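Exercise 7. Predict the structure of GT-D fold domain-containing glycosyltransferase from Paenibacillus hexagrammi.
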Amino acid sequence: MNSRKIINKVKNWSRILSSLTCSFMPSRATIINDRDTAQCLIRQPLSLIRFGDGEFIIINGGSIHYQAYSDELKQQLLQIVEEYNEEGVEAGYMLAMPRAFFKSSGFYLLKRLIYVRCWAIPKQTFRKLCRQDGGLYGDAFLFQKGNKVIYQPIWKRAKNIIFIHSNPACYQSFREQFNGRTYYIEIPTANCFDYIHDIIHQIHHIASTQQLTLSKTRVLISAGPAAKVMVHQLCKQGIVAYDTGHCWDDPLVL
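Solution. The predicted structure, encoded as tokens:
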């Protein structure tokens, strides 16, 4: 390892440890658990936008392996946060955060080095950017492994599902479990933000040509950070959408 890499690594860990110290106590924000998050989405037609470590990495100027950084993407993510700070669920969507890490103290993160590396900076960023007193957030880990019985009822009453994913096998698996009509949009495995306008166009094309009733239609999107922007845009267009992340191919295990 050359000297530059060593210096960069030291700087990175210095920032991580500083973030851990500054956000050692649990967040004061109300982050409801996975079951309550699902119930909120069932009771009223709210869309769901989930923030994880990837979104906070981009907000802080970095890239992740399936989405390159761009100023435009960062601004779109910040717009979602700022709007939610002002309107909460009245904006038409619920913003979800990693409850297990943000509502825990630094002692929990210190249990595993990977927790410190992945979540110390996002936790501090959340405290700086998002409402703490009076803020209501869902649980971003709603779609974790073993939670199928909790999240499936969210779209159980829908007549139509538009399923957006990079892997057709995931769509086929979902199709076998859903009783209504399903439609599939295949997307790239990385950098979906570059194709966001085309994907949104395809959603509207399906809805129009198939004469779907929007109030009975749900859109399930697995597209990394780009999914947050798509859900936000669709929400403003009167379409309920859920950012389902790795639910179908690599669900989170806590």
